[in-house]
Amino acid sequence: MGNKSIDIYIQNQRLDLFEDENIVVNSSVQNINDISKVFTDFSQSFTVPASQDNNRIFQHWYNAEIDEGFDARTKKGSSIEISKLPFKEGQIRLENAKVADGQAISYKLTFFGNLVNISDLFGDDELGDMDFSEYDHTYNPSNVKMRANATFSNKDFIYPLIGTKRRWYYNSDASDNTFLENLSNIALHSDSSTDTHGIDWTELRPAIKVKTILD
Question: CB–CB of 10/77 below 8 Å?
């Protein structure tokens, strides 16, 4: 759409726009199978004039002699308004500046939605860097049994009935006493200390919901 109905702000400062510049904002989800490439709304790159106000905002970024000026390595908070009404909140990245005879003519920008790139959001953080201390507990039969029970109140942190050594199945038929190295009928359980059936609590491991981790 033409820029007559559009206002673009970067760090709460309104940018001057070219009269004939078209700005296209696409809503898309790309490469959904690769979480590092999922994007929210983004625009194709567009240019703004190197006007007096824009030069002030970008601190004459094209001039390499200026120290500690505008940092184009990071995206800046921005917003788009259409006919003075809020349209999108996000970030703008300064791509480059077009210069002729030592004077800037225009700046090339790209607008990104607030989520931007998920890999940008996570950065170099790994699961091992997260603080899970609130889930610390003693690994013993009573705690495992409590958190494996369907009535346990905290559904974000449980012990799912997934064996780490054997595949389990349930068959109440007493004649089915199948017991192989990686297969066990957990219906055939007794309190005998020598009983190898049933669920061995040491084969269970705790689990935290993915949503909880993302939150």
Answer: yes
Residue 138 confidence (pLDDT) above 90: yes
Residue 1: the pLDDT is 47
Domain ranges of the chain: 3-122, 127-214
3-state secondary structure (DSSP) of residue 5:
helix
Side-chain half-sphere exposure of 142, counting CA atoms within 13 A? 2
Placement of tokens 């999108």 in the chain: 88
| Residue 47 host element (H or E) | strand 46-49
Residue with tokens 């004649």: 175
Q: How far apart are CA 202 and CA 14, in angstroms?
A: 62
Record the tokens describing residue 5, joined without a space.
């109905």
Integer CA distances (angstroms), 87 to 8, 78, 90, 112, 165, in order = 10, 11, 10, 13, 54
Higher pLDDT, 131 or 175: 131
At 36 the pLDDT is 54
pTM: 0.51
State the distance between the two ends of the chain, measured CA to CA, in whole angstroms. Answer: 36
In angstroms, the CA 157 to CA 146 distance is 11
pLDDT of amino acid 108 = 94
Burial class for 92, CB neighbours closer than 10 Å (0-12, 13-18, 19+): buried
Highest-confidence segment of 31-40, 50-59, 68-77: 50-59
